[in-house]
Amino acid sequence: MLNDKVAIITGAAAGIGEATALFFAELGAKVVVLDRDGVGARHVAARIGDAAMAVEADMRDRTRLAAAVEATLERFSRIDILINNAGVYPRMPFLELTEEQWSDMQDVNLAGTFRMSQLVAAHMVKQKTGKIVNISSVTFFLGARLLSHYVAAKGGVIGLTRVMAKELGDYNIHVNCITPGAVQTASEKFFVTEEQSREFLTMQSLRRRLQPVDIARVCAFLAGPLSDGMTGQTVNVDGGWALY
Ligand SMILES: NC(=O)c1ccc[n+]([C@@H]2O[C@H](COP(=O)([O-])OP(=O)(O)OC[C@H]3O[C@@H](n4cnc5c(N)ncnc54)[C@H](O)[C@@H]3O)[C@@H](O)[C@H]2O)c1
Q: Which of 8, 9, 10, 16 to mutate to test the pocket of ligand 1 (most atoms within 8 A of CB)?
């Protein structure tokens, strides 16, 4: 479905990004595995082989992101797909949140999406085609304790998606967004207890935990031709938690 498409996936050394990189490669895409964790990115790229390239870059560093875009063009000549997935979600009570923690959250989760999209869209505009998928979170709809800085940033990602879709539609660039629910990633065990994991199930309609590949599949839909009539949309992939 993504044969010979060139996709940059941010935050692809782990979790949802890793699953998306592996799934896109299965579908025939050439994949740029971008992450601040260079070792992890190289590990994922090595599992894919020649169709992948690892790039170490931090979403807060525009110069490194610009270099990543250039390296992609040098290696694969074009960029068809951008998945803005990199994100962090450290918990902090609203009353204790510092200016620094607030700013860092916006810098990675919201400004990182803006930066990377702007750099990649400059090339997509010339190609007159492209698909951008932004990863937000169902917490924007539900609210979530201890995540005021995160939920605000993820709401910003939905707003950014809508305006990018309006402006970039002139160039046949599609911009859509996914709001994942509680996804069972490898890193989850560091902040979710087994009891909390069971609680997620009681919130959902479906009686199984969501896996990273569940999000990867919807990324593939939004990055491929089956969604050619869609732009500016937010697709909720949460096992039937928030029913809007
Ligand atoms: N896991 C969930 O339940 C869930 C739910 C809703 C939304 N999301 C969103 O999905 C995305 C992926 O989450 P995940 O659970 O797979 O996370 P994860 O922690 O498993 O993986 C995130 C990856 O992003 C990378 N990363 C973090 N900050 C970075 C930066 N500044 N620059 C470059 N790379 C950076 C990390 O190194 C890591 O490889 C995030 O945007 C997250 O907010 C996750």
A: 16
Active site residues: 150
113 lines ligand 1 (CB under 6 A): no
Percent helix, strand, coil in the chain, to 5, is 50, 15, 30
User: For residue 243, is it within any domain?
Assistant: no
Q: Where are the alpha helices (DSSP H) in the chain?
A: 15-26, 38-48, 62-76, 99-105, 112-127, 139-142, 148-168, 194-203, 212-223
Kindly state whether residue 244 falls inside one of the protein's structural domains. no
Per the CB < 8 A criterion, the answer to whether 177 and 230 are in contact is no
CA of 185 to the centre of ligand 1 (A): 10
**Tens of pLDDT, residues 79-121:** 999 999 999 999 999 999 999 999 999 999 999 999 999 999 9
Pocket lining: 180 vs ligand 1, CB cutoff 6 Å: yes
Confidence class for position 191, pLDDT limits 50, 70, 90: confident
Query: Per-residue pLDDT averaged across 195-210, rounded?
Result: 95
Q: What is the pTM of this model?
A: 0.98
Ligand 1, atom 40: closest residue by C-alpha: 87
31 belongs to a structural domain: yes
Regarding the beta carbon of 60 and ligand 1, being less than 6 Å apart is answered yes
Q: How many domains does the chain have?
A: 1
Residues in the chain, how many? 244
242 lies in a domain? no
The atom number, within ligand 1, closest to the CA of 183 reads: 3
What is the CATH number for 53? Answer: 3.40.50.720
Q: What is the largest CA-CA distance in the chain?
A: 50
Residue 141 structural domain: 6-237
- In short, whether 44's Cβ falls inside 6 Å of ligand 1 is no
